[in-house]
Description:
Largest sheet: 7 strands, mixed
Order of helices and strands: HHEHEHEEHEHHEHHE
Bound molecules: S-adenosyl-L-homocysteine
Helix content: 40-55%
Mean pLDDT: 97
Low-confidence stretches: none
Number of strands: 7
Shape: globular
Structural class: alpha/beta
Strand order of the largest sheet: 3-2-1-4-5-7-6
Oligomer: single chain
Distance between the termini: 37 Å
Amino acid sequence: MDIPRIFTISESEHRIHNPFTAEKYATLGRVLRMKSGTKILDLGSGSGEMLCTWAHDHGITGTGIDMSPLFTAQAIQRAEELGVSERVQFIHNDATGYVAEDKCDVAACIGATWVAGGFAGTAALLAQSLKPGGIMLIGEPYWRQLPASGEIAQACGVSSLADFLTLPGLVSAFDNLGYDVVEMVLADQEGWDRYEAAKWLTMRRWLEANPDDDFAAEVRAELTLSAKRHVTYTREYFGWGVFALIAR
Ligand code: SAH
């Protein structure tokens, strides 16, 4: 069981697989006012940076589920590096439909809401793992600037304008689902650069090391396109944030 290979190549050096920086995760960990022992579930935990640093800085305990064997192995290694292996565990599995047996204080899905068909389905899924009054964390893109046409939306890599909401639209949607938005931390363009631009050097180095790999043509095509696509579209049109929700 694995995710498409382009991600495990282009993001193999990433600690954070979204436009958040280490500083943004630190801010989010601080503003949530978590007590030591706070129990967290993280669906699509990637390389585990959120749980590992929060275990280190705030004494949380956590479980992360991720479909990538590589990212899961990196998460386990990161926990060892930070000396928090006793507090966090990482499981290689499909998070689709995953519900924790022991209910959590915080249930998160940061940049992987497709595991439940979008943010609304993800909220419904995470709710099943939460103690009453628990905090849900959802990391989701939104339109920072609305594309003037469907063609521009497609150039941004989405099938239509309707795939995402604006920031006011997204916050209203959480409200309509019956949640109080109790905190939010938003990524910025610098964070998008860290996420996207960091892939370019990784892809370039991978191509140098694997010129005869069957996958080389695909990586080459992606590398040739991605900087232009990023500065023309992603960087300008996409916002991204983590929203903290408590059911009303
Ligand atoms: N939350 C992490 C990773 C976000 S990227 C971070 O902040 O860095 C999206 C992650 O979802 C990737 O790690 C990918 O491997 C994982 N993923 C994709 N589909 C999945 C699924 N069905 N079940 C579990 N994880 C999945």
